[in-house]
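Reagents: none. Just compute today. Arylsulfatase A.
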Amino acid sequence: MQINKTLALLAIVSPWGCKEVEKQIDEKPNVIVIFPDQLRRYSAGFWNEEPYRSEVVGVSDPVVTPTIDKLAKNGVVFTNAISNYPLCSPYRGMMLTGQYPQQNGIWGNCKAGRNHELRNDVKTITDVFYEAGYNTSYFGKCHWEKTEALFDENGNYKGTLEEPGGHLVNNYDTYVPPGASRHSIEYFYQALKDAHFDSHIYSSDPKLIGGKKDGELHKTTKFSAENEADQIIKYVRNSHGQRDEDKPFFMIWALNPPHNPWDDANTDMDALHQHYDTDKFAGIKDLVLRPNADLEVAHYARNYFANVTAVDKYIGTVIDELEKQGLLENTIVIFTSDHGEMLGSHGKTGKNILELESIAVPFIVHYPKKVKTGITDLMLGATDIMPTLLGLAGLQDRTPSVIQGDDFSKEILHPGTDEIEKPESVLLLLGNARGIQNDRYTLCIEEDVVAGKITSSYLYDNKKDPYQQTKMLLDVTQSEVQLLLEALGEKLKYSNDPWYLERKYADLIVYPE
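Predicted 3D structure written out:
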């Protein structure tokens, strides 16, 4: 189906009042990619206002996010951004490489006992920006390295399974040591552990970790988003020579909240009491507005939304610092997330589900120097982020030839251009499922991996059924279903997916010759 809506330009003046810095006129832009973990597409306040409200599938969340709102109202908002594989590690693999799991190496969450990890021989977005003369930095959660017992009992990296190694630092994530697996990240501040007031830190900068060396464990009890924002602000200020000021910088900030746990011990309780306590929202039904949600399952909504608001606050401190330093005008800020959060919808929590609350993510481009405010319904997937960012930064000629995503920077910089072909659908992946999403339908095929047979195949009509409450059986005689199955087969071939390589379920999926 052809998407006919192009960028709708809006006349909104930046509340940050970005300063045009004369020396930046011919300079390369700085780039910051900000992606909190597990933040639903509609968990932002601006969706409750027009013209954004009209773009919401269903209803948005009653959250307080003044920083995200400002980025949206002074940038380009994507209304159809999708996490192709809504899980932490696979998303990171695709975002970093512009390639699907079969090529980048990550087919599931990195975890103790599993062998997959980001391939060292694949060129990532940090590699490309480094080669283009950028300072490169990473703050927050990584989750792309094979999880092994390479630490001593105190959490210090030893690089061996033998004593004093032989201990895990975390079951689901691990330290990324210097070398090929860091992919040209010069300045490194990694936060491990899904505990928002007990981050395990490894850093290339001893000044931030009590004089310790890279690979030695440092712990902090400060709220993780606040702690990381503090270090980023120091980096922006270049407080102790963290970067070469004659070069632009490329930064990724991967915050852990609002990822679970969602208890009071892991919640910014000031945000909860100020915005989401019972005096503001008497019951969960007043917070969780989607009619497909099980309110008992969604009991953690106050904590989830409080951490969304807290994350927004600390992102705001970084944006404000960029403005103070005169850098915001010439900085590309991307705001997105690795996947959504079910929040009780269909009685489920978390992600790793091919339903809208799990796959729908925010995607905002804020670049005052070159990008006008607007809205686009262009369907953007995780593999498109790397080539699009390279295009926005004027580095499209450096895009690796093996990239499987598309560069949509021209649509952002020149709304309505006919120089790009807009995608009609995006590929959806799970370990045990494949699917496709277009501007109306979500089609999903689930399998029993061991038995090698389909366990369920269904279709959602998101126009008639925005809360996906009715699973329709696939009727291959319907033209819409046939077109979706053909598109799925094409995308599985293009992504070199194992289902295509084995021609799985060829009696249903229409594979190209």
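The longest strand covers residues 453-461.
Action item: order primers for follow-up constructs.
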